[in-house]
Write a structure and sequence with these properties.
478 residues; alpha/beta; 13-stranded mixed sheet; 4-stranded mixed sheet; 21 strands; 33% helix; 22% strand; binds zinc ion
Length: 478
């Protein structure tokens, strides 16, 4: 029988949680040195980092138990007490929370669900802002974050932007519709914190944005990778060379790019700029989680740091969800240690990667995701027993010279019942398609081990991506 929530314990555990967060909020206002915003948190030993995580975790479990009905029910169901989750070593006792579980809770308790550790009184006191998941699976889910969260968010993301080399003297053009997607708001919150100028790029089309770039000379653009390609091409069509613009850094988020070499290189070349990336999810926000550093791109591969004093990152096996050791491939799981309203305990974010705790050449000791991130497990395409990511198909398509930025993956069931894939690409030589079909098919066979039909279209046939690319159209009969 679940015990009732008790107001004194609610308040006491909340106060202890917030006091613990404040203890480890170092170098809040400004960077401590040019290389590293908070060396005390970012270049400390792995043992010191674990001590920070353990102190936060020991305050987090009682806070969740007393304040979140979703987590309280889970503790009771699992027969666990908050005192059972005190250190990082205790985490495997707590089975990962997945999207399906959170969606079921939200469906039962619309519109927000019961995962949050806030009562309506606390929400009203704090103030809040709502974000939503992009809804790649199921209906978009909504999340509120408090003003306290926003302060931690702006600080952690400022540390990430500093790591990427974004500094005073830069001007950032934020290219988004400013809808309820967390990425661009997180970047803007950090820029305010850092005192770096922001040009809001919402509410205008690509031509207007190209004019903003020409007139106001931002040195950084922040957007999805698909949009950075689209905008660059639009500028070329207008006779403006994006590579000759003032833009020197492209901050991408919302879809994978750093881990897809051909896309990252295409962006870098189009804009003559460096590509850096935010990685994260709405559930374990408000922080970005993953962030690039000056050493992220190396000849032997790319990597992304994960901010370990504000989140604990683990990998689990995709089948049985047991922990996967550093150095092995698995799915990302995040415990969010710096949020009052959404302090998730072992949320299955679900991107495949490999973690490496060896110190980075940049001096940071925070774990790195090798190869960065190339897609969520949810996006995996199953075709005739073969599994592949849209990112692998993207690599194959981009490997062939002259192919346009847009492409489409169409899955269908033939009359004889066989599931088939067609990859639709654009090429100026569409009238003589045979050689291009041969090349793209060859790349798909060698990279994805799949046979697919290839259709070559005239340039500008496929719809242009304005925000997040929707590459896969699945018309298969289930
Ligand atoms: Zn680094």
């Amino acid at each position: 029988m679940a015990t009732q929530l008790n107001e004194t314990r609610q308040n006491d555990t909340r106060a202890h949680w917030l006091a613990t967060l404040a203890t480890y909020r170092k170098d809040f206002d400004a960077p401590s040195n040019p290389r590293c915003w908070s060396p005390a948190l970012e270049t400390c030993s792995r043992d010191e980092l674990a001590a920070v995580q353990n102190a936060k975790l020991a305050a987090l479990a009682p806070f969740l138990y007393e304040n979140s009905p979703f987590y309280r029910r889970r503790f009771d169901r699992l027969g666990l007490l908050p005192s059972d989750i005190r250190t990082v070593e205790d985490l495997p006792k707590w089975p990962v929370v997945d999207k399906a579980e959170m969606m079921a809770d939200a469906a039962e308790h619309p519109p927000y669900g019961t995962y949050t550790a806030m009562t309506e009184d606390v929400w009203a006191e704090r103030g809040w802002m709502m974000f939503s998941s992009s809804g790649s699976t199921g209906a978009p889910r909504v999340f509120r974050y408090s003003q306290i969260d926003r302060e931690y968010w702006s600080w952690a993301n400022a540390r990430a932007l500093h790591s990427m080399g974004i500094r005073k003297g830069d001007t950032v053009l934020a290219l988004a519709g400013f809808g309820p997607h967390v990425f661009i708001w997180g970047a803007v919150a950090a820029l305010f914190h850092m005192g770096i100028p922001v040009l809001p790029g919402g509410g205008m089309d690509a031509k207007a944005r190209a004019n903003v770039i020409a007139r106001f000379k931002p040195t950084v653009i922040a957007c999805t990778p698909s949009y950075a390609l689209y905008l660059g091409r639009t500028m070329q069509d207008l006779g403006i060379d994006p590579a000759a613009s003032a833009v020197r850094t492209i901050l991408v988020g919302g879809e994978p790019a750093m881990g897809i070499d051909a896309t990252r290189e295409r962006l870098a070349e189009l804009w003559d700029a460096r590509v850096v990336e935010f990685y994260g999810c709405t559930e374990a926000s408000p922080h970005c989680g993953g962030y690039s550093c000056a050493e992220s791109v190396q000849p032997d591969g790319v990597s992304s740091h994960l901010m370990e004093d504000v989140q604990i990152w683990e990998l689990v096996d995709p089948e049985d969800r047991t922990p996967v050791a550093f150095g092995e491939r698995g799915l990302t799981v995040c415990t969010c240690l710096n949020s009052e309203s959404s302090p998730q305990l072992r949320f299955l974010v679900g991107d495949y990667t490999t973690l490496d705790a060896a110190p980075c050449a940049c001096g940071r000791t925070h774990v790195r995701a090798l190869g960065a991130f190339t897609g969520r497990a949810d996006d995996l395409i199953f075709l005739r027993g073969i599994k592949m990511f849209p990112a692998q198909i993207e690599q194959a398509v981009r490997a062939v010279p002259g192919i346009g930025d847009e492409f489409e993956i169409v899955l269908a069931t033939r009359d004889d019942g066989l599931d088939v894939m067609t990859v639709r690409v654009e090429h100026a030589q569409h009238a003589q398609a045979a050689a291009i079909i041969e090349q793209v098919s060859g790349e798909l066979r060698s990279r994805c081990e799949v046979r697919a039909a290839v259709e070559v279209l005239a340039p500008n046939t496929l719809a242009k991506t304005e925000f997040k690319a929707k590459r896969v159209r699945d018309h298969r009969k289930k």
